[in-house]
Amino acid sequence: MPEYRHALADKKRQIENDLLDLFTAVADAMGQAMSCLTGKNKASCQPIIEHDAEINRGRHLVEQECLTAIALHQLVADDLHDVVAATRIAGDLERIGDYAADIATISLQMTDIDLSEVGITDLLKMSSLCNEMMQAMLAAYRDKDAEKAKMAAKMDDDIDAEQAKLIQLLFSKMQSRPDLVPDASRMLWISHLLERYGDHLTNIAEQVVFASEAKVVELD
């Protein structure tokens, strides 16, 4: 293998490792944000909010490495697909990190209410599906497996279905219990963030397919 190909292979491994680290950081942030909500531990919310800056730096690191690869190495088609996909995936992961910080912020605003009154069971089902989808997407990217990515993307429909059930429940609650409106509204917003979490994971699935099969697909 020519020396320049060795250098490019090293750079692509670095990009992949840093992107896998970003996957893990974002998944952990989302899990911690939901624990902050369910545990009503407001002291644990602020570190999640502050950690968002580190996730942003992780995205910028991957993007800078991708730009360096494009500028300094002779990319053939497969290489370019990998690098472009990595840049796009980093952007989607950074947005999910924003949602974790948003959930932590909303948790700080919640009153000391019994969360079972405002749909926590259904919200946790959404969160569990999102986490399962995230782990499947991480595996699909790590294994460069387009079929795994396509299968994982189908889980977004389940997330949407759970959100529809939760919305119906919360609107019914707000009609019968006006005192629940502030916290029920906050739970609605968290459900929206989880729904967007699934959407961004679907975007990531499309990029895994792009990198693996050189095809532009829409999986939503």
Number of strands: 0
Question: SSE string, helix = H, strand = E?
Answer: HHHHHHH
% residues in beta strands: under 5%
Shape: elongated
Helix segment count?
7
| Uncertain runs | none
Largest sheet: none
Task: List its traits.
single chain, 220 residues, mainly alpha, 7 helices, 84% helix
Structural overview:
This protein is mainly alpha-helical and 220 residues long. 84% of the residues lie in helices and 0% in strands. The longest helix is centred in the first third of the chain and has 37 residues, at 3-39. It is elongated and about 65 Å long.
Write the layout of secondary structure elements.
Layout (H helix, E strand, L loop, with lengths): L2 H37 L5 H28 L4 H33 L10 H24 L2 H8 L1 H22 L4 H33 L7
Describe the structure in brief:
The protein is mainly α.
